[in-house]
Amino acid sequence: MVERELLRDAHEYDRAFANNLTKAATRNFDAATDLDEMGTELFEQQGGGGGAAAAAVVAARERRRHDTAVRQQQRTLDACRLCPSSSRASPHLVVATGHFTYLAVPARTALVPGHCFIAPIEHEISTVALDERAYEEVRNFQKSLIRMFARSNRELLFFETVKSLKQQRHTIVECIPLLQRDMHAAPGYFRKALLESERENEWSQHRKAIETGVPPGGVADATTRRAGPRGSVPPGFAYFHVQFGMTHGYLHHIEDERQFDWDFARSVVAGLLQLDIDVWKHARPESREQQLKRADMLKRWFAEYDWTTMLTDGATATTPTTAHAAAAAAATA
Question: Which of 160, 186, 260, 327 is 20 to 30 A (C-alpha) from 319?
Fold first, then answer.
């Protein structure tokens, strides 16, 4: 009897769903969600909203949603240029690889010599979403880069833009070495740009430039946020974070993604350094030969500070082998 009821109700649902497919052809619906809801709603209106039949309808809808999400995720991974396992990846850009993250040079024109980025190996949409082991590797790369560029009297600026969350973009932390005089001016440039980045409205819930960490000469107190975006924004939210070295930065909650450009940070750096617009706004991927030249140059610079050479198959990201204990101390100090 239950089987007959399920079959009858399933046929009713299929007919309702099919009818709505044709109706939706002239309307703007997402086939994986809206049509399911239309069919289920019609099914319930026809008196099939209770008991085992309703449970079967809900289960079928959830299966379709799950299958659609899996297919979408797979398409995202296949198309990602930053996932090392993707057929579209560019391994010649990689400088060093840890267990959970890697260091690479950008495919398009660098803003300055030494411009590079840190990315998780797994497809993650923000550093806030990383587990502690992966996040510790990000910090190891940052510390090593700071030590490396200090020899040439340059300091490191780091930034991350997280938006378009439905597209599940692979996150990166870009690393820009700056002369000390430019680094000293950078916080003011970014704070001003963030305050002007999105129009104010009565629904705004966040300050535009939330200070993270402690600025030079500042004193930490009970209200001081930790450096970096973690602890200042929960996973699953759009944000921009810029960090000056390892101790101080600004976090911005992106409330209107249409007003916040992907090249926001590049434009601020370009203004600070007075770069031509073609260098940052109209930059296109360079030739493979030019990319290899930049990657090889950074590998030579980074070799002395490369903490990933300490890793063994069973080691964690912060566990050095005996031979590289001194380099490990430098990277993680």
Answer: 160
